Amino acid sequence: MLTPKEKQNSVELYFMEARAKLIDIAAFMDRIEKDGLTDDFRYQAFLDALKELETGNRAENVLLALSDPTKEPITSATTKAACGAWPDKPR
Amino acid sequence: MRYIEPHAHMVSRTTDDYQAMVIAGCKAVCEPAFWAGFDRSSVNGFYDYFCQLTDYEPKRAAKFGLPHFSWLCINPKEAEDLVLSREVIAMIPDFLGRDNVLGIGEIGLNKNSRNELTILEEHVNLAAENNQLILVHTPHLEDKLKGTQLIVDLIKNDSRIDPGRVLIDHVEEHTVKYVMDAGMWGGLTLYPESKCTSPRAIDILEAYGADRLWMNSACDWGVSVPLAVPYAAQEMRRRGYDDETVDQVFFQNPVKFLSQCENFTVRG
């Protein structure tokens, strides 16, 4: 739909940045395991979302894996903040 | 380069930020009403805030040669209180005649509750009755998918609202298609930790085209970058885009949407 006039090599542009983020993810997982926090629902959602890296449309599918998939409004808001993962996701 | 900052909470920013934005090429800044980080105690707090958005802040921006525009509403984070929300909505028409007001926003949902939906519907009615543009905030993180669908469906069901006069902000990869398919505009918000990074925002432009998308910093009192928009423009150039395309995305697009309000004027 939109393409640059002079397309650049995406690996050249983004590999080092993605490499750094990948190592950060690995270190995060090591840290959570070391601290014995793997049962946290957010970490479990994180592990589920990682599986989406094997699919196409990875960014969209990771976001969907972390989303509340229900359709109906909740009765009332008891907090203002979001936590990044759907707390009611079945385990 | 020249650009419009279509979403910035400048009441939370410093004069240094104004200076940096102008030096970077900002030609106008648009400020939606939002949550102060705490709940206001009465409608009088909103009266003072609306005066700030429509009187004081434009004067502060003018000291840097920057035109300042504003949107008015009670934000969804405070919409659980129906009584207060309705007092605020009743007061908004008194401010709609002010010179820098663009429309109703940023309305929307936060936790996707029934009361939030009720107040969203009343805001949409206010916009329809007063022929105002609409700027919508979509929820954060895990609540965004559901909230975006609820919002788009509610607005689509009001036949008085032209979808081309509605911008749904903070879209991401999992919500942008729903907004584009509804004929509305979408906003890509550039945040360091949530919402979109510049490379992801450009990926979305490449997938959906630039016709009805803009980018904003939504800078406020939290972790945010007031120069995120020109940084994203630089990222587009790094990918090989020419100046004309960059100008379309960062200047012409927001001007096209915002010019639907006669109060919006900008010098190129």
What topology emerges from the helices and strands here?
The complex is a heterodimer of chains A (91) and B (268).
Chain A: H1 10-34, H2 41-50, H3 58-65
Chain B: E1 3-5, H1 15-24, E2 26-32, H2 43-62, E3 68-72, H3 82-91, E4 101-108, H4 114-129, E5 133-137, H5 144-156, E6 166-168, H6 176-181, E7 185-189, H7 198-208, E8 213-216, H8 228-238, H9 243-258
Parallel strand pairs in B: 1-2, 2-3, 3-4, 4-5, 5-6, 6-7, 7-8
Helix pairs in contact in B: 3-4, 4-5, 7-8, 8-9
Report on this structure.
The complex is a heterodimer of chains A (91) and B (268). Chain A is built from 3 helices and no strands. By secondary structure, chain A is an all-alpha fold. Chain A has a domain at 37-67. By secondary structure, chain B is α/β, with parallel strands linked by helices. Chain B has a single domain (3-258), classed as Metal-dependent hydrolases (TIM Barrel, Alpha-Beta Barrel), CATH 3.20.20. Chain B is built from 9 helices and 8 strands. The radius of gyration of chain B is 17 Å and the shape is globular. Chain B starts with a strand and ends in a 10-residue tail after the last helix. The A-B interface holds A 1-8, 13-14, 57, 59-60, 63-64, 66-71, 73-86 and B 35, 77, 80, 110-117, 139-146, 149-150, 172-174, 199-200, 203, 205-210, 236, 238-242, 245.
